[in-house]
Design brief:
There is one protein chain. β3 and β4 form a beta hairpin. The protein is built from two helices and six strands; from the N terminus they run αβαβββββ. By secondary structure, the protein is an alpha/beta fold.
Length: 153
Amino acid sequence: MKKYFTFIIIILTIVISVCNDTNATQTPIKQTIVKPIPQKQKSRVITHVTLTCYQPVEEQCNSDYLHTADNSLIDLKKLKKGELKWVAISWDLLYLFPMGSEVKITDETTGKCYGTYIVKDKMNKRWDHRMDILIHPDSKERIYEENIRVELV
């Protein structure tokens, strides 16, 4: 029994000494400072288009002229007050400005800022590189401007 007990003590001392030696020879743990990852900035999408206007009437739209392409209902009272700032875009621009995105429309030559609009409608497929601002059916305003800057907000 005494031999067995001394054998266990020898094994334990060997194990303890080996553990102490490995701790001494290990490289110290480097402290790393965790830096916050910067938030991804929105990519600035800018293009130039021909800007026109349209009215929610059957002659300029389809038979369901009070609904936009994303199925939003046009409230004519809000539109008349200027509370609805919606725009229709040509199909070739949908990849840049998807439905529901906000765009800022500016005429760089005159400095006129039309404001910020929400993309709610699509134009007829025959149009390329165009945007239509939605105006009230009673409005006499007409817009036709070329080389208008449009920026994703």
